[in-house]
Amino acid sequence: MGVDRRKFLKIAGISAALGLGGSVGWQLLRPGQLDAAEEPWNTPYQWVTRDHGALKEVPNPRALKGKRWGMAVDMKKFTPATAKAAVEACNYYHNVPSIPTKQDIKWIWLAPYKNVFPEVENPMAGDYTDMDYITMCNHCDQPPCVRVCPTKATFRRDDGIVLMDFHRCIGCRFCMAACPYGSRSFNFQDPRPFIKKQYDGFPTRAKGVVEKCNFCAERLAVGKLPYCAEASGGAMIFGDVDNAGSALRKALRGRYSIRRKPNLGTNPQVYYLV
Amino acid sequence: MKLYNGPIIIVGLVIFLAIFLLPFYISGGKTAAVPKPELPKKSVATECVMPTEYMRTSHMQLLNVWRDMVVRDGDRIFINEKGKHFNMSLTNTCLSCHDSKAKFCDSCHDYLAVAPVCWECHLVPKEKK
Amino acid sequence: MLEKALSGSKLYWGWLVCLLILMAAGFASYLVQYNEGLVITGMSRDVSWGFYIAQFTFLVGVAASAVMLVLPYYLHHYKDFGRITILGEFLAISAVLMCILFIFVDLGKPTRILNVMLYPTPNSILFWDMIVLNGYLIINLVAGWVTLESERKQVAPPGWIKPVIYLSIPWAVSIHTVTAFLYAGLPGRGFWLTAILAPRFLASAFAAGPAVLILLGYLVKKLTNFDPGKAAFETLAKIVTYAIILHIFFFFLEVFTVFYSNIPGHMDHMKYLYFGYHGYNALVPWMWAALICGFAAIVLLVNPRTRQNTTILPIACVLVFICTWIDKGMGMIAGGFIPNPLHEITEYAPTALELLVTFGVYATGAFVLTILYKVALGVKEEEAAL
pLDDT digits over B58-106, tens only? Predict the structure, then answer.
């Protein structure tokens, strides 16, 4: 009889586990009540998945289109005031918190030449190596962060912008180890208490995800330039690197420009005009 | 048939039953009131992006599609069956008509004990009085 | 066979209870971390991986080192490893389990862990690490369990288990190679950007793993009637000897390339670790302790008289453990992040809660190991009684 009892317990256990966890329990308790909520796939709209054919989404017709977005930072036009304005505009409109510890979040910030361009030090050059440089995600052509991400939570769009999908990031921080520019930050805690003034037009982030500069993808989508470029008083020139007629290409043509760690093969798309 | 370890099994079963039946005891046999989410005033909006019946059952799937379209594909305009255009945004589109999260979203979510993580990041605009 | 774990001495149960208490403390600490976020750790924007990933890296090595028993025993029919191989396989199981747990507790959004499988990304080394670690866990579980069960039933193991065991040999190498690739392929981190990282990892693994196994073997011998055999200990000790020498040798290869080339991006990490950098030197005593332990171990192990001495060998094994644990744990991970890509220095030290979570994971590993060893030794005892 031992075997029979064991078999019985097995069946009872399995059905209990399935029944109580699933719909059977609900049906017993509240017959009919949850039918609608339970089976959305029974509705005529069962095709609502990402690769459906029936719903239509299109880009905003006013959206700016580019083949490879880039930024030039004109160090001659930069003043401490315009730099500050650019940083503050970004921080406010993206709800970037200010955390007074080593677990801070940064999208765009100022750092001395020797930190932004380590190993390219030139103590004799004087003028341009004495300045603070604006530092942000380089939106690399060959981004190492995208290469290492195990969930495609960070990805490179066709227009060259390296974006974060905060809905998908698992917070493994592999991208932070991979980024050769220290451009990524991790939300070690809930950032909301550290946002001084909240901007309702853009979401905050949750604890446990990595974030960084998004080249104002949300602005380009409605036909506007990035906040920092707008606030910099012409010192930051945003444009399409692949378009020979763009303002960016014009700025790059006449001036000597440097990029951060070009020897790593990442092909950064932020150019510094010196 | 002999029941081995009888006392232990019976005590275990009693404990299991007690835990299992606890919710019924606590609710006292009554059921919670079925929620009635408050729809926007007719002056604000008369129609949602999709039919009500669909939204009731599948708004979460629709929001997931919107999310992927906006974040990953950069498409921000949604065209519904009637050809109307909408900006795909939880805060700026959905909540601009459904201007009370508490009276609309939360009433059902609380009843069903679901806690969508949307609000960890997406802000709820201050309710207009 | 699992019922063998249900009867034991007071010492056995007391030990399990101790581990359960530690596990509970670790779990409670993890709950704090789960609610507050990784803010409770000592990690920072600059040192974004810390103690958890360090332990993970070290334990992958311990897991991989089971191959040092499986290979001689199954491929070369080295009979002296007949009694101890199962202990190595079970050590690997518990080590891989801890590896997976350490990755899990390091995640910022642990509830989304299945995204790694929902959106498979073959260009990410972490994706492959997930595959090889889980694969290795299953292979060892199946191989260990099936051979033990056949041993208990006094029958030859089923034929299909042979290929599984053979597969475990390259697979063991793969887990540590892939783990090294996590670091060795990142363009901006000069400390890790070296082709010798995987061999270096394997060398320190084949030193640390068998050293742990020797210590466990002595413990088992002391606490039970089971003796893995003098020859097994001696061969294992030889493996540890060669491996720790290779480990130190590889370290000097690294030192040569880094300092002779004189490239700052590669040198500065080494300078920070061994001499301090711009006044920051938290890890310097640790790194020198590791190096000194390594050398002391080599002296004790190379000399056959001290190596074969049953009191000195465990001491040498402890020295090997300390050397590789510091080098691969603290040094390898924190060292890669300091200085950061902007050449700024943020130091790292784990917090108390971080350590508690770590102990909790180790206790879980020890718990699983105890159960598995209890089963294995129970079967061996039964066999001896026949």
Answer: 899 889 888 988 998 888 888 887 788 888 999 888 988 888 888 899 9
Domain hosting residue C217, numbered range: 2-381
Dig out the tokens for B110 from the structure.
Answer: 């609380």
- Complex confidence, ipTM: 0.91
CB contact under 8 A, C44 and A176: no
What would the DSSP string read from start to end of A167-207? TT-----HHHHH-TT---EE-SS-SGGG-SS--TTS----T
Residue B86 pairs with which residues in a beta bridge? B78
Q: What residue type is assigned to position A229 of the chain?
A: A
Fold of A69-273: Alpha-Beta Plaits (3.30.70)
Closest CA to C38 of C98, C108, C93: C108
Q: What residues of chain C, 301 to 320, have a C-beta less than 8 Å from chain A?
A: none
Question: Distance of CA A18 to CAs A4, A9, A43, A53, A162, Å?
Answer: 21, 14, 25, 35, 44
pLDDT at C267: 93
Q: How far from B8 is each of A7, A9, B86, B89, C18, CA to CA, in Å?
A: 20, 16, 63, 57, 26
DSSP C110: G
- Residues B83 and B97: their CA atoms lie apart, in Å, by 19
Helices (H), B1-129: 6-27, 52-68, 95-97, 105-111
Signed CA dihedral, C128, C68, C141, C167: sign only: positive
Q: Which residues of A touch B75 (CB under 8 A)?
A: 57-59
- What is the distance in angstroms between the Cα of A62 and the nearest Cα belonging to chain C? 32
The answer to whether position C168 is within a domain reads yes
Whole-number pLDDT of residue B45? 77
The reply to whether C352 falls in a domain is: yes
A73 bridge partner residues: A236, A272
A99 vs B4, which has greater pLDDT? A99
Helix axes C312-326, C284-302, angle to 10 degrees: 150
Token code pair at residue C321: 């453990």
Q: Minimal Cα distance from A182: which residue of C? A: C341
pLDDT band at C280, cuts 50/70/90? very high
In this structure, what CATH number is given to the domain that contains residue C178?
1.20.1630.10
Contacting subunits of A (3+ beta carbon pairs below 8 A): B, C
| Cβ atoms of residues C251 and C243 within 8 Å | no
Average pLDDT rounded to a whole number, residues A25-33: 42
Phi, psi of A193 (to 5 degrees): -65, -15
- The count of domains in chain C is 1
Instruction: Tell which residue, C360, C284, C271, has the closest CA to residue C326.
Output: C284
**pLDDT one-digit tens code per residue, C344-359:** 999 999 999 999 999 9
Minimum distance, in Å, between the CA of residue B7 and any CA atom of chain A: 17
Indicate where chain A has its CATH 3.30.70.20 domain(s). 69-273
Share the mean pLDDT of chain A.
83
Would you place residue A45 in the very low, low, confident or very high pLDDT band (cuts 50, 70, 90)?
A: very low
Percentage with pLDDT > 70 across chain A: 80
Residue C177 is encoded by which pair of tokens? Answer: 């190679």
Q: Residue type at C349? A: A
Contact between chains at A30 and B117 (C-beta distance less than 8 A):
no
